[in-house]
Amino acid sequence: MMCALALEGASADTPANCSYNDIQGTWLFTEGSRNGEAGLRCDHWTPEEGTQMEITLRFPNVATDSLGNEGTWTLIYNQGFEVIINYRKYFAFSDYKVFDNRTVISYCHRTRPGWAHDVLGHNWSCFRGRRTGQERTYERQQDHRMENLEDPHNSEAFADLLNAAQKIQGTWLFTEGSRNGEAGLRCNHWAPEEGTQVEITLRFPNVATDSLGNEGTWTLIYNQGFEVIINYRKYFAF
Predict the structure, then answer these.
(1) Where are the bilayer-spanning segments (predicted)?
(2) CA within 20 to 30 Å of 123's CA: 63, 89, 102, 195, which one?
(3) Which of 158, 161, 230, 163 is nearest to 201 (CA)?
(4) pTM of the prediction?
């Protein structure tokens, strides 16, 4: 493990709590018409009519569909996931329900209505996903009342988050400390006074290249930070 210089950010959370192991596996995506525009509202969309596609999400971040196309996928915190495949990008939050303003049931085997568009940001559509096999349902108690919980599905500003990647694209100078740490390494007060520097360029739609010629991928993590996977290493910072 290592420490790297970080960004600051903030966002509204959903109460869903789904892990990497809950999401990896084979999913059936049902996608609606692709004639929408940016800002498309999918809050109440139901997959009664739509095109179905089977997508398998494998370790570490490989996505393959039933037509043989290959892409990437990323868990977005513990709240949802993103898939980029066959020149389209899909994002959805994991499904959940709140009872008595305190008890949260996370349905990690299915998504809430999500958004899809091509890698150029056109041809928007709504979709829902359902994981095949065993259902993954978890119950937990909240420490606070939830009457005023903001659901990003009901926020018109959420569409803007999908364009936030434009603010991250560009060339970055990463300063990395010693690589002799272990899982759980605390980087809160780490300062990049001494470290190895590497220049990494993040390009559209999700291509990362470093100054040594290595190529990898990058993903915006909601509006809180970003992740880069390159040269057999993974970097994440807020």
Answers:
(1) none
(2) 63
(3) 230
(4) 0.59
Q: What are phi and psi of 78, to 5 degrees?
A: -115, 25
Q: Scan for tokens 């990395």, then name that residue.
A: 176
For the domain made up of 20-141, the CATH class stated in words is mainly beta
Q: Which of 230, 18, 15, 9 is nearest to 135 (CA)?
A: 18
Domains of the chain, residue spans? 20-141, 156-177+195-237
- Summarised one tens digit per residue, pLDDT across range 56-79 is 999 888 999 999 999 999 888 788
φ/ψ of 8, rounded to 5, equals -110, 150
Say if residue 209 is exposed, middle or buried (CB neighbours under 10 Å; 0-12, 13-18, 19+): middle
pLDDT for residue 164: 62
Picking from 66, 67, 62, the residue whose alpha carbon sits closest to that of residue 84 is: 62
Same fold, 20-141 and 156-177+195-237: yes
Number of H helices, E strands in the chain: 3, 16
CA distance 85 to 72: 7
> Could you give the CA distance from residue 194 to residue 138 in angstroms, rounded to a whole number?
44
- For residues 166 and 163, give the distance between their C-alpha atoms in angstroms, rounded to a whole number: 6
Quote the CATH superfamily of domain 156-177+195-237.
Cathepsin C, exclusion domain (2.40.128.80)
Give the model confidence (pLDDT) of 128-186 as tens digits. Answer: 999 998 787 777 665 444 444 444 444 444 445 545 666 788 899 999 999 998 888 88
State how beta strands 103-111 and 137-141 pair: antiparallel
pLDDT value at residue 155 = 47
